[in-house]
Amino acid sequence: MAAPHLRHYQDGGRVGGTTARFQPMGGGGVPRRAANGGAGRAGLFGGKRAGAAVMAGPGGRIWKDLLGRARKRKSAFRSGAELQEASLHLLDCHQNLNDLLLEVEDSVKPGGQGGVEHQEVSSESFIVSVLQEQASRLGVPTAILAAQNAVTNIERICQASASPFQVPLLNLDQRKRLSCLLQTVKDLLANNVFCRSLFCQEMWKMKDPPVLEAVWHLHRGNIVGLGELLESNPAAPAVVEWLCDSLCGLCEQVESSGDVELAGHVLSDFAILFLQNGFQQTSELGRKLEFKNVPYICHAVLRRMLTWVLDAVGKEKQEDVSTLQAMRFWLNVFNVSVYKSAVHLDSLQQFFRHTLTEVLTYNPLLKVCDAIHMQKEWSFTRTCSLLTTLYRKMFTAFSAKELICQLQQVLETHEVNWQHVLSCVSTLVVCQAEAEQLFKDLLRHLLIKAFENYDMENMITAFLIARQAALEGPAVFMPYSEWFKASFGSSGGHHGSSKKALVFLFEFLSELVPFEAAPYLKVHIMYPPFVPTKHRSILLEYITLAKTRLADLKVAIEDMGLYEDLSSTDESVQPQGQALRDVEKALQIFENTRKIPTSVIEASIFRRPYYTSWFLPALLRPRVLPKTPDARMAFIDSLKRADKIPSNLYSTYMQACRAMKEKMLQDESKVETSHSKEPVEQLKAELAELRTLIVDKAKYEDVPAQIAVISDRLKSVLGHSSDENEAATLNSPIQVDISAPRLEPSHQSVVDLLLTSFCQNLIAASYFNPPDRQGPCLSLFVKMMCGHGNLLPALLGRLCQLIYHQGPSLNDAHILGLAAFVIHLSECRALIPEVKANCGISEPVSEKVLSISEYWNCLLVCRTEKSFAFCMRFCTAAASYLMCKFPSYSCEDLCALLPPSLFKKLQYIVPRLSLEARGILCEEAKTDLIWSSLSCPSLNYKRASLCLWKQARFQELLKEKALQLSFREWLLLELEVYPEKDILSASERQDFHYWAIYQWYLPAPSASGGCDGDLEKACGIIINTILDSSQRLDLGSCGQSKVSVSPDILCKLQEMVLELGCRRKLLSGCLDAQRHFMFEILQERLKDRKHSSALGEQLWRQQELLLHRRILVGLPASALIMTCRKGKKTMLDCEDFFRFVNLELKNVCSRGYALSYDITAHFFRGLLNASLDCEESAEGVNDVLTACQTRCPIVLFSAALWWPRLEPVLCSQWKRLFGAPLAEELERLREWQSSATSFLSSGVVFPLSGPPWISAAFLHCTIQQQSPHGRERNALKRLGTDTEQLLVSLLFFSLMDLISAKIAPKEGVDFQTSLEWSLAILQCLEERGTSWPLLFHSAEKDPRKYCVLRSAASDCHIRLLPVAFYSLTPCFHQELLTREQTFLYVALDLYIQLLRLFVEGKDLLRQSPDTTEHGDPLEVITTARRFLFSVIPGCPAPSFGNIQPLLATCEELDPELGATLLHFSRPAAAMELDEEPVLF
């Protein structure tokens, strides 16, 4: 039965006919092998390789089958012991112990057949018995024999590979056989018959070094630890060599074998070993004293492997792809997750610090000058990916502050590799958001130390770090130009402490000059360090040196652009490219101001070479001229008219344009669009890669690096776009035409690509995680976009198109994405310049400078049903995203991120559209805000906004002062609504207004934007807001100002004013001292505005007064007049109204002396209504109208002008209120009108009653309403002899009409007719010898005569009295000069006023469009001057006595006239002495 099996063991596992068995060595007792290597092991891995034994001979069965057969039939042995003894006897003769260790794995299971049980036969005890028997026979310990046989088997297994050379990983067959062996060895260890120490020693004596995976299995199976195995080899350098070769081989084999997971486990365990033994903590040293060589080995291996990687950094492009992949696999040892709890955190940080130091100090061959010259190539995206990956993995174990401290320590204590240091700076500033401020602190520290010790090393370190960080763009670090200005641009800089410090700085800058690139030299020249005047020579010396260097670089400072972006370090921009940018920027400025930019004017004078050689050729590039002149054509035309374009150059340009038009080149669009498709495709690929990272939380750490790559691709795309369309916008406000934003097609496509990517990333990330678990990916993406300053105009313009123009048509996904984008833009608001928003018209007032938060307020308008719906959707999405994105933020932090305008829009819209929201003060939300509900396709935004409104967090934000919608802001929003297109019906709007005003804002405290229950305060806010709203430009109507007041709001104001009036009536006591609150409000608005000659200011004031009048007319008429008690009598008080009319309202009057009909009628109606409160109504009316004669005569003049329309209204009202005869003063007004009419029509005598100027006003107005004027001239002659003041007053009113015809021809007054009427009145006065010049005398001594007339005229008409005066010169005769001694004084005073008006360019220039009809201003002045020269010689001597105060001014303005006056004003005697005596 046993014969076949015996034959197997007799074969002994033949390998090439060699029998493998142990035989005793002579006398030593140490077993040695026979034919297959018994000569002992020479060297470290000595001995002959044994063949692989296969325990299955011809017809033989494996040992397991033998044991299995015992279960299949009845055993011939009575017990297991008997069976074991027989087996040992059989093996004693023919055995192969090595094969035995490989074959026996499992115990023999007990089995029974026919009810017969057999005892368990243990293979473990069997192996032990065999080993003990063999060891006894050989005379060696069993444990030693087992160890030696195990090593022999491992060697056989490792050598069984089909590969011609040894590889670190086993194949499947080797792995299976090794597993069998290790199981047996574990059993032997359990029975204490295995010698670990000898096993370790024998492992190093094999012919070939052990396979790395086999060693790992020994460690993983707890047979022999890696540390113990490494320590057992005394030749530590050889172990290091083996480990490094094996680890490199492992990394290289991963790609080909596909055993990535297994290789990762092997690498991880070795890495843990290296850290546990190479970077021990003090608490661990005690238990690891038995290892002496292991720490050295671990350090050495890590250093060698790091060197392997760093050697490839400088030649990444030359390395094979597979080699680079192998190195990247090795970098997994720097994954913090590998070590978990296996390595103490301090050990891990110690390892990373050590590695970072090794990297920064590796091969420090580069000099500082090399770093200055080459650092641009060491930016994040240009640095070898191996190095940036290594940095990023190490950074995860430290905070940014710890990393920068480590960097600082290395810089202070070691010679460094500048390439590695600066690439580390770039990686840090890109991947660590908080690194920017920390680097600023480091730079400040370095500069302080540098100037304290005058240390050049700290200076160069600071400059290199500042420049390197700035290379990554303004999104991550301030531009170099900004840093240089901030550090040295003021007297507070470190260099300003002493002359020595100043000299030190310029010595340092001078030493840099030979190595500097042009952009940095330009920064130093254009933004030089602050230097006291006495040391200016030091600066000039440096500038000369820097300009010399620029000349060597073939960069002329004269060729610098007008708007060059000095923050950029791009050296590729040539003068022609910069000139194209300058042209675009100049066109932007010209288009907005319609003036040639100052910088262009200066360049044409002071920088002539650049202007003529670069700027003009860039501007005058031939093209097909458009039919309608565009901004470029207008700009060129303006320069041509200003003689800033040479004629020959302009002619050449026009000829070339005509030639181009004739040819009509078909490929023009290709010429204009030089945008390369390849960079765009690369950008798309990188954006797609970013999306894969954003949706995987495990890859968030790779996002900053990927965004840096995208930034680099974006820079390439923008760099390849047409230079003509690129504007330098970093340091200037961004121009956005809100009414019609213009975008270059190339930039728009890039912006659309980025916005699409953002929205897709948001939706994709939200599918897997809510916003608060999406990491900083989207924030970094938006910050990167903001870092590209030349992209911002296109970005903001595109957002204007999408939100302002196309908002209602956007779908939910678009709105959600754009809302989140706006939130992230608010995070980056420090990177975004101010926005100059204009509405597309040429007036300067149309342009406003806005912050980015105010910009959103301009774009999100609520005027129509569609815009309301869109605004609610957008603001709901934005606020919800913010609260879901930052759930742990405090209200203060949220306020900093949330644009106030968005939140206030929600406060306005939600209660407006939802009745339920009006009743919520603070309701605790039952559930948190769920982002998934907001991003679902079937979202109901009205329900979502109400859900948001009910959130407790939202209600907390409502209490933040910065986010509260005040009453004034609410009114501004409501006044923008178009009632006919409102989302609410008229009744719904009325209900909403009632709730908002009376229930919400009126009782609310002023601290939260309310009125404190003060009705007067509420009225003041409404009036001011209506005025502000009307003065603001209405963008929806392309810049046309609103001229009407919202009837709904005005209705509420009327209610409040009436309620205030009723309350005052109930108050007792004297209210004489109390002023009218409404006129106080109106005058307060005008008080702070200075009377300016600027046209814009004048227009604003005129518009403001017209609005005041509109509001006053809209209020209850009785509100203009107050009542007060004097004793037991109720009096009417019009003082505030009179004051307001005399100071302000008269300046927007008709004809210069009368208020408009609406305010005149309103006052009289109010007067009659208010008189109802008086005990004697007629008496109250009479008192007021009597007071008007002296305190506010313009009211009566207005009544005279409008009496035909006013009389029926007042008579009807009086009859309705009182049913009694008219009040006496009203009746007198009727009589004056009747007298004037009768005098002109029937020839009756004109009666004189009351003040003559009132009679004159009625007569003048009646005359103006009748025609022709022949009868009126005859009527003048019929006036009595005592009507001199009446005639002078008529002259005044006619002169007012004369001036009105000049400055306001639309008033319906004819100039020539007015002039003829004035001359007729003057002739009548002259015929009667009446004194009239004092009418023009501004310093009249007798105020009783004509000051009433002058006080009723508008300021503008009074200023233009000199024009009217000198229009009357045909009637000035010699008799007038002798009769009126003050005439010369008046004429000279008015002439001086005329000259001043002309010099200051005031109203004198505002006249009829047909300037030839009445003479231009110069003609008026010439006429006046000629008249004065003609009359001065004929003036009597007393006339010259009055003009002395005017001589000095006259000599200054008109020296010739002054000399003439001086000559004729001398006494007669003096004049006689001046005459030459006649001798013969």
Describe the structure using short key phrases:
3-stranded mixed β-sheet, 61% helix, disordered N terminus, disordered C terminus
Helix and strand arrangement:
Blueprint: H1 3-11, E1 22-23, E2 32-33, H2 63-72, H3 80-93, H4 97-103, E3 112-113, E4 116-117, H5 123-138, H6 142-158, H7 172-190, H8 196-203, H9 212-220, H10 226-231, H11 236-257, H12 260-278, H13 294-313, H14 321-330, H15 345-360, H16 368-374, H17 385-395, H18 400-413, H19 418-431, H20 435-453, H21 456-471, H22 480-488, H23 499-512, H24 518-526, H25 536-552, H26 575-593, H27 598-606, H28 608-619, H29 631-641, H30 647-663, H31 668-672, H32 677-694, H33 703-720, E5 734-737, H34 745-768, H35 777-786, H36 792-805, H37 812-827, E6 835-838, E7 847-850, H38 852-859, H39 865-885, H40 891-897, H41 900-913, H42 931-934, H43 941-950, H44 952-958, H45 967-975, H46 986-1001, H47 1015-1031, H48 1047-1066, H49 1077-1087, H50 1095-1114, E8 1122-1126, E9 1129-1133, H51 1135-1143, H52 1157-1170, H53 1177-1191, H54 1193-1217, H55 1224-1242, H56 1252-1264, H57 1270-1278, H58 1284-1303, H59 1311-1328, H60 1343-1352, H61 1355-1359, H62 1361-1366, H63 1374-1379, H64 1383-1400, H65 1411-1414, H66 1417-1431, H67 1437-1441, H68 1444-1453, H69 1455-1464, H70 1468-1474
Parallel strand pairs: 5-6
Antiparallel strand pairs: 1-2, 3-4, 6-7, 8-9
Helix pairs in contact: 3-5, 4-6, 6-7, 6-8, 11-13, 11-14, 12-13, 17-19, 18-20, 19-21, 20-21, 23-25, 24-25, 26-28, 27-28, 32-33, 32-34, 33-35, 34-35, 34-37, 35-37, 37-39, 38-41, 39-41, 39-43, 45-47, 47-48, 47-49, 47-50, 52-54, 53-54, 54-56, 55-56, 56-58, 58-59, 64-66, 64-68
